[in-house]
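FOLDING PROBLEM:
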Amino acid sequence: MIRFGAPQWFLLIPALVAVGWYWHDLRLWKPLRIACLVMAVIIMTDPQIRSHGDGLDLWVLIDQSDSAREYAQPRLDEWQSILEKSKGVDDRIFYVDFADEAITRGALVSSGPTATEYTGNRSSTRLASAINYTLSQVSHNRSARLLALTDGLSTEPLTNVSEKLIAKQIPLDIRLPPNRKDNDVFIASFTVPERTQSREGLVAEIIIRGTTDTSIPLEIQRDGNSIGRRTLTMIDGVARMRFTDRLVTPGSHQYSIQILPENDSILGNNQAERWVEVQGGPRVVLITAYDNDPLAKVLTTQGFEVQVIQDLSSTHIGILSGAEAVILNNVPAYELDTDFVKSLDFFVSGQGGGLLMVGGKTSFAAGGWFGSSVDHLLPVSMELKQEHRKLSVAMAIVIDRSGSMAATAPGTSQSKMALADEGAARAIELLGENDLVVLIPVDSVAHPMSDSLVQVGPNRDELVRAARSISSGGGGIFCYTGLKTAWNQLNKTTVGQRHIILFADAKDAEEPGEYKALLKEMAAGKCSVSVIGLGSESDSDSDFLKDIALRGGGRSFFSGSAQELPALFEMETATLARSAFIEERTQTGGTPSWTEITNEPLDWLSEVDGYNLCYLKPAASQAAITQDEYAAPLVAFWQRGIGRVAAVTFPLGGEFSQRARSWTGYGGFCQSLTRWLMGPAVPSGTALRTGVAGSHITADLFYDNTNQSLSQQILSNPPELTIVRGTKPLPEPIVWERLAPGHFSASFDASDTPYIRGAIRLGDNAIPMGPLNVSVNPEWTFNRRRISELLATSIRSSGEHRLDLSHVWSAPRQEGFYSIHRWLLSFFIITMLIEAVQTQTGWPR
């Protein structure tokens, strides 16, 4: 089919015929001249050829967010049936699931909207992103429409969406649910100051809204501890409350509120959280295993502000706010908060913080730091060389293979069993050549995978494959049976270190049996037991599992995330098989590298009482080494990102530290090393201001543009802003906008993460930021303005609100014509050139 965009130009044809008839000398009747004139007229009429067929591609966007699941899921089969029965022969349907991200479900309707389960994050409704994604998938040679099946409560604005739909001539139809008539009570806002001074009072305000007037129990927590409970009365659908608090400890503190109304239809909007930073001067965070840590006294005497933390379980990411350096003084990784340990990576490499690990019998590999997120930061390797292994290890891995392990781990595509298998495999990979191991899967009976202990060296690959092949069975896990089977195997060997790792579901650990007597017998035989529990310490069988570890002289770990299981197996195995603390008096020697830290000379101590055997990593420097057969580093350091990291492998407190503490250079050594860790100060004349607005966080960098040196530095090397979302390992760069001289600004979405930390890099320095978060999840705020915005976008794109989905097929379809005048213009030019050649040469005749 062909059409003409400007058919009025065909009126030129009679005029040209008349001109050719009247002026014979023009010889317009010559074939080539006639062809040129006709093509010129046709080009002016803008001829267009239809590019689309009769069929329509309907792209159905299905809202899979948490707030819409209850509305959408029960209706999917009905909607599918309506769309299938009413479509034409040449019509096609494509499905796009969306929440935080958009995922194309499959090609044609045969796959169906319930063919697969949406696996993305459901905590936000990013409708604009889903529309933009779908527009990029639409075929250009077929008519297309979009149909959004959503509650309309997008958590992001629909900025410029209508313009993109109009440009592509693709209408957006929508299907909204009836007005909600839920009996819902929700937290409308939670306002607290973002920062405060130490001991300064702060005022927080809570606004609660609902559809009915009722009494609402409310609890307020600070850093996970309850600080107050109230019962509010809602009047005319609103309840307000203010509370005051006074913060003393530096760092950031998390306030959270929770309401527990009766008969509440929606629970997702009953919690809110905010972080408050207590401002202060530069400080050092000392996390220590010792009472009256001598490091704290020395550093305080030298003028440092020191925050001492002895309760290891109280560590959290907020401690890092405002901190210049963190010292881990003989503390094990498994007793610290998991998120805090993970956050140290960005604290050093991105925010420019300093990190020092000090030796002891629960530090380095002995403290479970091997393979952790901190391992790669340290300037020393905890990988114990085979020739330095003093004792071989005989290990039994008792692993839960009950029916519940077949379930898929949340947030992954793998089963719990597969992740536990991977943990066992990694444990075997960490064992030495001469170590022995036996795998014992257990459900209601034990299923040992070998009749006796197997040497790892010649059988490592086969053992790893066997570990990864364990499948779930049935029933629960009989702990006593598993432990008894393991002890029967280990009791036959004379290997110096005998150990059992028991992995069990903390909600389904059965059959205590005579476990107390069995563990007493094992302890007498110098066999230890550690427990890895899938679940939390509050689960029904966690006390039983913790008692096994306590009586077995080992450690207990609990994790509700099956994804962390492999790391826990690695940590426990490395603590046993990859650690070495030398309990011998050892002579020391200094190196010239100490001048990289300070120019002040240091008279090194002559001997240490003991140290953690480690090895210097390539590119790291060492300031002191042992004078024994190992020549091991005692003081090592290097730069990681824009931060600094050091390792002191001998104790500076507690057991095996007598010679170090009596060393005359003790104070000077600690002072110089700590000042080096803190790095250079941020240039004066710079300031950072952050704010939270809805689901977005803004960051504004101000600097003194009258300071020519500072301005030149910033203009020649513009500041770089990076953020990390929660405990994700990879930093995310954010694009700045220069609003004015001396002012940079940036904004980014924070609705899909529990908190955000960031850093602004200025040359070799960094200004840290966060943690910051959105107080109330926008997914549950139900902003009705988003519905009005969506309706307006649909109307502008020539779409409609479809109450009857079958009518979408009878809507006007895109004609899909494209112009061919460019092709005709090419032929016109060629014909005109041939005609000119013929006129001048007479060839061909």
